[in-house]
Amino acid sequence: MAVFSKKKLAETRGGGPFVSVILLKDGKYDLNQLAETINSDWGIKLPNGSVNETTNTLSCSIDGVSATVTLINAPIANDEAVKNAETNFRWEEAVEVAKAHKAHLQIVITTQNEALTKASTTLVKISSSALKQDIATGIQTVGTVFAPDFYVDFAEDFINDDAFPIWNLVFFGLYSNDQGKTFSGYTNGMKVFNKDEIEIIDSEFSADEVVELLTDIANYSIEEDVTLLDGETIGFTEDQKLPITKSQGIALPFETMKIKF
């Protein structure tokens, strides 16, 4: 368990909504088939009448949260998907796929009383099932565009193992300012959980170690509802005390929590 020197909040409220957008080859998406897939994937049987074919929507309550899926027969406006796809260094075809999409499926989860972890996991379940139709080419979420197999594999592996699907809900960016001598990383997706985004700048540790630390901090912060505080420290052993400072973001255009690593 992580050793955190910071305030722990009793309860998180006011977060969300949780949103993802499925990129489509065209507007012929089958919402009734989606309802069947959600049932077969997760054992969630949607109420009769959840799909409205006139308005091209699916709406219902799942596990105490409100879910709405809307089919929009047009590309995402203002080349938003293309700009977001440029951030995904793990998928070479992301930009090409984003440019080619002709329609999209918007998935929105809102909650008032249920835990944010539960609401966000519901988003991942629906999004994962939505990606299984051949017409789906990618998913825009947490400021990037993921490949369908990447998103589905992480969703099923984590959720079926009773783990929080952190890699579906937070994007872990990685870059180097000096051709691989040091590595910097950042999160995108923490704000919807009422948390500051996190950055590690010019670390001498490996790229994998930078991403692993960001993942561990983000996961623990969300699951345990821990808030990082400027001037405190964080560690995953009794001896590790990594300083935390809050300042203007380097990779992100707002203040972030910097972890010295």
Stretches where pLDDT falls below 50 for ≥5 residues?
A: 1-13
Largest sheet strand order:
1-12-13-14-11-10-9
H-E order: EEHEEEHHEHEEHHEEEHEEE
Beta percentage is 25-35%
* Secondary structure: helix percent: 25-40%
Radius of gyration: 19 Å
* Count of domains: 2
Number of strands: 14
Q: List the total number of helices.
A: 7
Distance between the termini: 18 Å
The whole-number mean of residue pLDDT values reads 93
Taken from the alpha-carbon principal axes, the silhouette is: globular
SS class: alpha+beta
What's the story with the biggest beta sheet? 7 strands, mixed
Description:
The protein is α+β, with helices and mostly antiparallel strands. It has 2 domains: about 20-170, no CATH class; about 170-260, no CATH class. About 30% of the residues lie in helices and about 30% in strands. It has helices spanning about 30-40, 80-85, 95-100, 115-130, 150-160, 165-170, 205-225, and strands at about 5, 20-25, 50, 55-60, 65-70, 105-110, 135-140, 145, 170-175, 185-190, 200-205, 235, 240-250, 255-260. The chain has a 7-stranded mixed sheet. It has a 7-stranded antiparallel sheet with strand order 3-4-5-6-2-7-8, sandwiched between helices. Strand 7 and strand 8 form a beta hairpin. Helix 1 (about 30-40) crosses helix 4. The radius of gyration is 19 Å and the shape is globular. Mean pLDDT is about 95; it is low at about 1-15.
